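2024-03-11 09:14:02 INFO worker-7 job=invfold-0412 stage=load source=structure_tokens
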């Protein structure tokens, strides 16, 4: 419920990659971002659709926001694009949406758009257990967000669960259902991408990534595995040492 009205927010990871030109400092860059769509319904009527352009830093695990496309609806018609921005356009700058290393009390900017409007956040809690309609989630973190375009508005505290994402926003919204995408099945296949990023199907459970410099002595790779886009993903920082990698099942 929000302002006494039944409110539904549907968040979807779209099968869409968007290139963003510019943003940040230094030489212009071309960043490939994943599009995350949020559709908000109030009393059964569509009121807004937001598409967030996100990218994760392979080396640090930080999730950055490079823009947001907002469509505000009234009676089925788009009436406003307020809140939209794109890094590199009209002095807008990308921002940190979720740090890979979570430290309580850390403050950061989630984006800066035209007019000097700053969206900021502070990590307000970790190792939180929360119960919502979708179930009970452990090891959650909370982030309190502020928006300088709404000086009279109260900050909103959001709760995120590992492997799931947003499970609660303030007192108005909580997670009701999770629909996982279809994933490939069978034996895992390593996919090596830039910055040595390994991926294998989410359905291939209980596999561990090991490394070796001589194909004889194998050690467990210490980095944490992330669950993204229906796959297990693990990023290993590059160094000058020649290494071999393998997936093993205990």
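2024-03-11 09:14:09 INFO worker-7 stage=emit residues=250
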């Amino acid at each position: 419920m929000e302002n006494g009205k039944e409110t539904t927010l549907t968040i979807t990871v779209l099968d869409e990659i968007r290139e963003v030109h510019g943003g940040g400092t230094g030489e212009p860059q071309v960043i490939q971002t994943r599009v995350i769509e949020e559709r908000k319904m109030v009393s059964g009527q569509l009121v807004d659709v937001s598409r967030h352009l996100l990218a994760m830093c392979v080396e640090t695990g930080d999730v950055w926001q490079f823009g947001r496309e907002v469509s505000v609806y009234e009676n089925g018609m788009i009436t406003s694009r307020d809140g939209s921005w794109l890094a590199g356009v009209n002095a807008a700058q990308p921002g940190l949406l979720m740090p890979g290393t979570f430290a309580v009390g850390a403050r950061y900017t989630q984006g800066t758009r035209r007019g000097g409007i700053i969206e900021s956040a502070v990590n307000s809690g970790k190792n939180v257990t929360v119960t919502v309609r979708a179930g009970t989630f452990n090891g959650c973190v909370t982030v309190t967000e502020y928006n300088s375009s709404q000086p009279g508005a109260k900050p909103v505290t959001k709760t995120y669960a590992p492997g799931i994402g947003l499970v609660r926003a303030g007192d108005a919204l909580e997670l009701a259902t999770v629909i996982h995408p279809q994933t490939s099945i069978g034996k895992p296949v390593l996919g090596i991408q830039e910055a040595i990023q390994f991926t294998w199907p989410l359905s291939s459970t209980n596999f561990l990534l090991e490394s070796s410099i001589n194909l004889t002595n194998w050690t467990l790779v210490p980095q944490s595995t992330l669950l993204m886009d229906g796959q297990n993903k693990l990023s290993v920082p590059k160094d000058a040492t020649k290494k071999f990698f393998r997936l093993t099942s205990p």
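2024-03-11 09:14:09 INFO worker-7 stage=report msg="Residues 7-174 form one domain."
2024-03-11 09:14:10 INFO worker-7 job finished
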